Amino acid sequence: MNKARRNPGTTIAAHGALVLYTLIALFPVFVILINSFKTRKAIFREPMALPNTESFSMIGYETVLKQGDFFLYFQNSMIVTVVSLFLVLLFGAMAAFALAEYRFRGNTLMGLYLALGIMIPIRIGTVAILEMMVATGLVNTLTALILVYTAQGLPLAVFILSAFMKGVSDDLKNAGRIDGLSEYMIFFRLVLPLVRPALATVAVFNMIPIWNDLWFPLILAPSEETKTLTLGSQVFIGQFVTDWNAVLSALSMAILPVMILYVFFSRQLIRGITSGAVK
Amino acid sequence: MTALKLENVNKSFGSVHVLKDINLTVEEGEFVVFVGPSGCGKSTLLRVIAGLEDATSGTITIGNEVVNTVPPAKRGIAMVFQSYALYPHLTVKDNMALGLKQEGQPKSIVEERVTSASRMLDLDQYLTRRPAELSGGQRQRVAIGRAIVRDPKLFLFDEPLSNLDAALRMNTRVEIAALHRTLSASMIYVTHDQIEAMTLADKIVVLRDGRIEQVGSPMELYNNPANRFVAGFLGSPSMNFLDRSVSGLAAGRTLGIRPEHLTLRADGQLSGEVTHVERLGGDTNLLVRTDQGETLTVRLFGQNATEVGSRISLGFDAAAAFYFDDADQRILPAAA
């Protein structure tokens, strides 16, 4: 960083703002975590207190692990999220490359058509999607969810990635062509590594909504074998009685995988930024 | 044998006609420089030769093969780009070896060619580095090395020195000239810098608005330009064009005289006032406003004491003057 700009006052103010924001953002997560380790009475008596020897209880986790097939739900959520992300990134990047790299009739129109997908929420088409899934026999399969989430993520992915791909030097791609690389190799070996930060951004943008979604699992795949974590957690929330221990424990556990994925992607993001610093 | 032959090559982007009826032959071992102002189509022409753009019409022959429909990698060419275009995630060695590996050459040959190229270009100690860890001049040498290892029939250079600073540009220019002597390969070099063109070329191709204006050796073009554009483009400072200051010139005719052919002389054909003086040590450049209101540049060798504002008289040898008609074409002195 430039020395002249490293004014201590500015640095403190910037860090102060960041720390404050972090505290606000982490507070609900913190409350969920501490309360998942308390007895039901303690949760309601003192929701902000840390668990002590008296109020400590693992009852929530025991309920969650005993009742229902929680590891299966975990696995389902993980499969759906990871496969959807993979497909969104792969097809999104390919479409973005085609739009950014090749001159063909209807290029601009195609870009606009994809941009429309960002503006129209996919849930408007729920009934049609359900009818389609019934007709193709995909109801109550993870494939149905993966297809829907891939479709949902593609427009934004294409939009962001094509902007980044236009920034990749033409000379580099042409050097590859002269060296005998096929268009696929140029895409996979030259262009993709250079837009890695953009890929990570798109992945993070898409991951959270997919992992947290309740709507499509409830409608398209509510069967016991295909339940996702969010849908599985709903069994503890009743109309009259809610098992808060179990809900909080389930939520605490649901944070973990998505956090691991995030750490993985954000490392790509940081590496991408530093490697982009050179010409 | 001819290394490259272009016949009636045209290129249009939509309704924009970029290259117009290009005809050109490059002999084997020749160093040909395409030169022209920006937007004249010289880079497009190079890309058409490389196969990165398709010609709209016409034939391109490299060696003895018509290559209009041959992909770039199979044309037997290698190209060096202005922005180096090195693969950022590969080491120097892998950057140079990639093309050969793609051709499916055996490992021993790849190794041998990379070693000899890196020795030639003084890159031995950098082979395991990545492009990000190299300076601009080293990167350009790697880019040249990547071209050499492929042992192409034709080298293509697209303004390879434009991103280098002045001192390095001179060094690299000399290196490229030495490389051409060592490899005695056919090379095509695109530049907008007329010094690079004059110093490197066996043959200069001057382009303007997608048309070839003139083809010839540097001294041919300097001594015998076909028209006013070529006369003004080559030579630095560029040629003076006068149509009022010289007596006895028919209407519509222009006289061209190079700054270095003008001398201070008491009984000179031209007189005027000095408006600016550039002292370069070895040379002195004077900007002069003639009595008829035209501006001209005079290049005097050595140092000169002439001051701004002084009145001077300039003379030139009639044999060193060029004459142009109203269509800017060169005409003989007798016709002027």
Automatic annotation (TrEMBL), chain A:
<dbReference type="InterPro" id="IPR035906">
    <property type="entry name" value="MetI-like_sf"/>
</dbReference>
<comment type="similarity">
    <text>Belongs to the binding-protein-dependent transport system permease family.</text>
</comment>
<keyword id="KW-1133">Transmembrane helix</keyword>
<protein>
    <submittedName>
        <fullName>Carbohydrate ABC transporter permease</fullName>
    </submittedName>
</protein>
<feature type="transmembrane region" description="Helical">
    <location>
        <begin position="78"/>
        <end position="100"/>
    </location>
</feature>
<keyword id="KW-0812">Transmembrane</keyword>
<keyword id="KW-0813">Transport</keyword>
<feature type="transmembrane region" description="Helical">
    <location>
        <begin position="186"/>
        <end position="208"/>
    </location>
</feature>
<dbReference type="Pfam" id="PF00528">
    <property type="entry name" value="BPD_transp_1"/>
</dbReference>
<keyword id="KW-0472">Membrane</keyword>
<dbReference type="InterPro" id="IPR000515">
    <property type="entry name" value="MetI-like"/>
</dbReference>
<feature type="transmembrane region" description="Helical">
    <location>
        <begin position="142"/>
        <end position="165"/>
    </location>
</feature>
<feature type="transmembrane region" description="Helical">
    <location>
        <begin position="246"/>
        <end position="265"/>
    </location>
</feature>
<keyword id="KW-1003">Cell membrane</keyword>
<feature type="transmembrane region" description="Helical">
    <location>
        <begin position="12"/>
        <end position="34"/>
    </location>
</feature>
<feature type="transmembrane region" description="Helical">
    <location>
        <begin position="112"/>
        <end position="130"/>
    </location>
</feature>
<feature type="domain" description="ABC transmembrane type-1">
    <location>
        <begin position="74"/>
        <end position="265"/>
    </location>
</feature>
From TrEMBL, chain B:
<feature type="domain" description="ABC transporter">
    <location>
        <begin position="4"/>
        <end position="234"/>
    </location>
</feature>
<protein>
    <submittedName>
        <fullName>ABC transporter ATP-binding protein</fullName>
    </submittedName>
</protein>
<keyword id="KW-0813">Transport</keyword>
<dbReference type="InterPro" id="IPR017871">
    <property type="entry name" value="ABC_transporter-like_CS"/>
</dbReference>
<dbReference type="InterPro" id="IPR012340">
    <property type="entry name" value="NA-bd_OB-fold"/>
</dbReference>
<dbReference type="Pfam" id="PF08402">
    <property type="entry name" value="TOBE_2"/>
</dbReference>
<dbReference type="InterPro" id="IPR015855">
    <property type="entry name" value="ABC_transpr_MalK-like"/>
</dbReference>
<dbReference type="Pfam" id="PF00005">
    <property type="entry name" value="ABC_tran"/>
</dbReference>
<dbReference type="InterPro" id="IPR027417">
    <property type="entry name" value="P-loop_NTPase"/>
</dbReference>
<dbReference type="InterPro" id="IPR008995">
    <property type="entry name" value="Mo/tungstate-bd_C_term_dom"/>
</dbReference>
<dbReference type="InterPro" id="IPR013611">
    <property type="entry name" value="Transp-assoc_OB_typ2"/>
</dbReference>
<dbReference type="GO" id="GO:0005524">
    <property type="term" value="F:ATP binding"/>
</dbReference>
<dbReference type="InterPro" id="IPR047641">
    <property type="entry name" value="ABC_transpr_MalK/UgpC-like"/>
</dbReference>
<keyword id="KW-0067">ATP-binding</keyword>
<dbReference type="InterPro" id="IPR003593">
    <property type="entry name" value="AAA+_ATPase"/>
</dbReference>
<comment type="similarity">
    <text>Belongs to the ABC transporter superfamily.</text>
</comment>
<dbReference type="InterPro" id="IPR003439">
    <property type="entry name" value="ABC_transporter-like_ATP-bd"/>
</dbReference>
<keyword id="KW-0547">Nucleotide-binding</keyword>
